[in-house]
Design a protein that fits this description.
single chain, alpha/beta, Rossmann fold, 7-stranded parallel sheet, 8 helices, globular
């Protein structure tokens, strides 16, 4: 008889942009999906009914990474690993604070960007790895990073710092997991330049506060942006590749 076990995916930031596109593609493929976002997306519920895939949506503010991770840990501990062919965590959620020099940034905006973009992925990864460490099946953590985690940009200190931190904690996580009998495969992946609300925010920033604004205007004008659906397809293909996790920090563009 064929193996009827499902693949379990846990995805943050699934209500819009590339996260929404990934959620749709996972449901269309019939996978079981837990989405963690500030807002549920009714279109995903409709799609799950149409495809027969199992969907759970948590409305959870990832600015409170402790609450999100404790909820995820309890949920995973109540699951039977025998039901799953694999389990995958995709930390996709992120926040760009107001695009201004660091000296003009508010403490609240900086805290939000770091909590959602760095603290929550670390806490969720810790909960995921701890709750599944004895599961005898493939486990993967995919952190959605950015080229801005590797290259500095003016007026982007908080976002750059969050993504750089994500890259580096993924390197540490890879070292930890390499010592485990069934260690998880992990990677912090830059998904390329995508035409999302984040790009709209960057293009609309005040030029005097954001010296690189013209670069983002050119990317749009020259058609160099991937659509959310295209980017999601690339990212999910990367996640399922046999070499996933060989390098802890990577870029879909090679």
């Amino acid at each position: 008889m064929p193996d009827m076990k499902k693949h379990l995916y846990i995805l943050t930031g699934a209500s819009r942009g590339m996260g929404l596109a990934m959620a749709k593609q996972l449901l269309q493929a019939g996978h079981t999906l837990l989405c963690i976002s500030r807002h549920a997306n009714p279109a995903l519920s409709t799609l799950a009914i149409q495809t027969g895939a199992h969907l759970t949506q948590w409305t959870q503010d990832l600015a409170d990474g402790q609450a999100a991770s404790e909820r995820l840990q309890a949920w995973l501990q109540a699951e039977n690993s025998a039901n799953w062919a694999s389990v995958n965590l995709i930390n996709n959620a992120g926040v760009i604070p107001p695009i201004v020099p660091l000296g003009h940034s508010s403490p609240a905006d900086l805290a939000l960007a770091l909590r959602v973009g760095l603290e929550a992925p670390m806490a969720l990864s810790a909960a995921f790895l701890g709750a599944t460490e004895n599961w005898p099946l493939p486990r993967k953590v995919l952190n959605i990073s950015s080229g801005l985690g590797r290259y500095p940009m003016a007026s982007q200190a908080a976002y750059c710092a969050a993504k750089a931190g994500m890259d580096h904690f993924t390197r540490c996580m890879a070292l930890d997991e390499a010592l485990q009998p069934n260690g998880a495969k992990v990677c912090s992946l830059a998904p390329g330049v995508i035409d999302t609300d984040m790009q709209v925010q960057l293009r609309g920033a005040a030029g005097e506060a954001f010296p690189d604004q013209s670069k983002f205007l050119q990317l749009k004008a020259q058609g160099q942006l991937s659509s959310p659906a295209q980017a999601a397809e690339q990212v999910l293909r990367f996640l399922t590749h046999p070499d996933f996790g060989r390098e802890p920090v990577a870029d879909v563009r090679g």
